[in-house]
Design a protein that fits this description.
The chain is of the alpha/beta class. The protein is built from eleven helices and 14 strands. The strands form four sheets. A seven-stranded parallel sheet has the order 3-2-1-4-5-6-11, with helices on both faces. Strands 12-9-14 form a three-stranded mixed sheet. Strands 7-10 form a two-stranded parallel ribbon. The longest helix is centred in the first third of the chain and has 21 residues. The structure holds uridine-5'-diphosphate.
Length: about 350
């Protein structure tokens, strides 16, 4: 009997990390989830062993690497709220940069030389209106984007000096949920468009608003490249396999190349759920550019990446399925539903 090869997934109890653990398991690997549950969820650890720890705790990481002897690490563990990074940059540089340095040191000591790193479209800062290419990178406009960009530079240097192979995957707007409904987006506080709109539909976000209707776009609202989390997870497996077959690594955009405005997303939610999202209008959110769309050609050509679930109907269907489980409806709808079930029981 062949034993599944282990891959250590830092932040494996988070939104994208948990989807990646599931994809690893389905691809025949043993995902070892390394998480301290600062933002992750215990109930998301379902596809392999758990090591509870902080990435900044080098001894803990070292002992996890010794115990599980992974062929690679996929590194998600990081803070990722742009606004918070502006008010508390130390938290971001400590965790995202120092934490990664600790992890890399432990990996070198353990002679583990394959890493897939969770990067972000935020490394591009205020990009032009045209689809963004990997070579456009390098002018982040907030500490979160800076922290990810710094790690990308560190990885480039470690690749050249120490032979530590790595892919940095720059996500655009991650969304949707696994078709099983077992895992999905669950943050506190929640700031993202699709979950906020769904929470508004469920009575959890009475102040849900469109941030900015005066952008220089077709309908005046900001345009983003939305990519389903299942497609993101699949891209990590492709990057991992490419490292294992000898590629030294690089950086790739993960997006679809299609841009949708906030209004287009809300129309897709209205159509998918069958009810209009109650929505206010507010001013632009500070730091939000008008248009951010990936040029995904490099990932398409080199990784053979093809988004399969990133059409708006699938994004809305899976996200809504998850939200109905994760955030049951609040009063008065919840009360009405309770009344209906008690009538049915009597
Ligand atoms: N947005 C909005 N209302 C919200 C949350 C987001 O209008 O409650 C807009 C936001 O200004 C941006 C787009 O939706 O133009 C996507 O925002 P999100 O926070 O989901 O992702 P980001 O692009 O900031 O990473």
């Amino acid at each position: 009997m062949s034993v599944a090869k282990s891959v250590m997934v830092t932040g494996g109890a988070g939104y994208i990390g948990a989807h990646c653990c599931k994809a690893l398991f389905e691809a025949g690997f043993n995902p070892v989830c390394y998480d301290n549950f600062s933002t992750g969820h215990r109930e998301f650890v379902k596809w392999g062993p758990l090591v509870e720890g902080n990435v900044r705790d080098r001894d803990r990481v070292t002992s996890a690497l010794r115990e599980h002897n992974p062929i690679a690490v996929i590194h998600f563990a990081a803070f990722s709220l742009v606004g918070e990074s502006m008010s508390d940059p130390q938290k971001y540089y400590q965790n995202n940069v120092v934490g990664t340095l600790m992890l890399l040191q432990a990996m070198r000591e353990a002679r583990c030389s394959n890493l897939v790193f969770s990067s972000t479209g935020a490394v591009y800062g205020n990009a032009d209106d045209k689809p963004i290419r990997e070579t456009d990178a390098g002018v982040p406009i907030n500490p979160y984007g800076h922290s990810k960009w710094m790690v990308e530079q560190i990885l480039r240097d470690y690749r050249a000096a120490y032979g530590l192979k790595s892919f940095s995957l720059r996500y655009f707007n991650a969304c949707g949920a696994d078709a099983s409904g077992l895992i999905g987006e669950m943050r506190e506080p929640e700031t993202h468009l699709i979950p906020r709109a769904m929470m508004a539909l469920q009575g959890h976000a009475a102040d849900f608003a469109i941030f900015g209707s005066d952008y220089p776009t077709a309908d005046g609202t900001a345009v983003r490249d939305y990519i389903h989390v299942t497609d993101l997870a699949a891209a990590h497996i492709l990057a991992l396999k490419r490292l294992l077959s000898g590629d030294v690594g690089g950086s790739f955009n993960l997006g679809t190349g299609n841009g949708y405005s906030v209004r287009e997303i809300l129309s897709a939610i209205n159509a998918g759920v069958g009810r209009p999202v109650p929505v206010l209008k507010k001013d632009r959110r500070p730091g939000d550019p008008a248009i951010l769309v990936a040029d995904p050609t490099a990932a398409f050509e080199t990784l053979m990446f093809r988004p399969k679930c990133s059409d708006l109907a699938t994004i809305v269907r899976t996200a809504w399925g998850w939200h109905q489980k994760a955030h049951p409806m609040k009063a008065p709808e919840a009360r009405a539903q309770e009344r209906l079930s008690s009538l049915a029981d009597s």
